[in-house]
Specification:
The chain is mainly beta. It has two domains: about 100 residues, Immunoglobulin-like; about 110 residues, Macroglobulin (MG2) domain (Immunoglobulin-like, Sandwich), CATH 2.60.40.1930. The protein contains one helix and 19 strands. The strands form four sheets. The chain has a five-stranded antiparallel beta sheet with strand order 1-2-4-8-7, with no helix packed on it. It has a five-stranded mixed beta sheet with strand order 3-10-9-5-6, with no helix packed on it. Strands 11, 12, 13, 14 and 17 form a five-stranded antiparallel beta sheet that branches. A hairpin with a 4-residue loop joins strand 15 and strand 16. The chain is globular and about 50 Å long.
């Protein structure tokens, strides 16, 4: 698995997720404006370095020098974009913004810095705000004629497989196209603070092993228990689509020897209503 950010969902579960701070290791995300009217709007920003100047040299990660994520605080409106930078270090990107409070993330690897980082900043979009409830925990997401099914459990502090399987009109999709060097990209946001996690699947196109669908498998670990929103980007027939899921990361508890008889008794007494985590 190739991780995209130093704070990703990796086997190092329990680490602080990225995107919770506007500044890290001397690097800061600066927006020209943090207030926008609703609609399609151009957002301009810079990443400044420890010297206070805009950074202009970045190490590409998955074919791009900067990955920009926008999402409303109620986890709707997710957009994974790739802005354009001018010669002075100012980036610009067009976003579709609905009224409400938003969180913007810049995922970058400045040249000279030891790795990638995710910086986050809040923005406000004017207008009547109608926050949406977090969707339920369905294991299937529908994107037009495509269905994406999720298998596996997200565990806090423990690496586990998450497999997303893509079908179209009931038939497996076996010709997914590479998108930014992978068959799929997964972003997870922790509900409550929008702690940011970003991973990529096991294997990569052209490695002689990884198939172009229908299944895309990620090795992931959540930094903590709680509810997470998952966003899978995949490309088919030259169109990038996003499937969304809601999952709960729950620790797996291994009972000690003294707890075994009680666990068995409880299982017998609550058959059909006892959840195994």
């Amino acid at each position: 698995m190739n991780n995209h950010s130093g704070h990703d969902m990796t086997a190092h579960g329990g680490a602080r997720p990225g995107g919770l701070s506007v500044s890290e290791n001397g690097y800061t995300l600066e927006l020209d404006s943090t207030i926008f009217p609703a609609g399609v709007r151009t957002v301009t920003f810079r990443v400044t370095g420890p010297d206070g100047r805009p950074v202009t040299e970045f190490t590409p990660e998955h074919e791009k020098k900067l990955h920009f994520i926008a999402v409303r605080r109620d986890t709707t409106g997710f957009q994974h974009m790739h802005p354009v930078m001018d010669g002075k270090g100012t980036w610009s990107v067009d976003l579709t913004l609905e009224p409400g409070d938003w969180r913007f993330f810049a995922d970058v690897h400045p040249v000279g810095h030891g790795g990638t980082m995710a910086l986050g900043i809040d923005a406000s979009v004017a207008g009547p705000y109608a926050p949406q409830p977090i969707s339920g925990g369905s294991r299937s997401a529908h994107v037009g004629e495509y269905t994406v099914s999720l298998d596996g459990e997200l565990l806090p502090g423990t690496a586990s497989d998450l497999t997303l399987t893509v079908s179209r009109d009931g038939r497996p999709v076996t010709d997914l196209q590479p998108y930014l060097g992978a068959y799929g990209h997964l972003v997870a946001l922790r509900v409550g603070d929008l702690g940011y996690l970003h991973v990529h699947p096991d294997g990569e196109p052209g490695d002689g092993v990884t198939e172009p669908g229908p299944a895309i498998t990620f090795m992931a670990a959540a930094p903590s228990g709680g509810v997470y929103r998952l966003y899978l980007d995949f490309q088919h027939q030259d169109v990038v689509r996003t499937a969304e899921f809601t999952v709960r990361a729950t620790a797996t508890v291994t009972p000690g020897p003294d707890a075994a008889p009680r666990a068995a008794s409880e299982h017998a007494g609550h058959r059909g209503g006892h959840a195994h985590h």
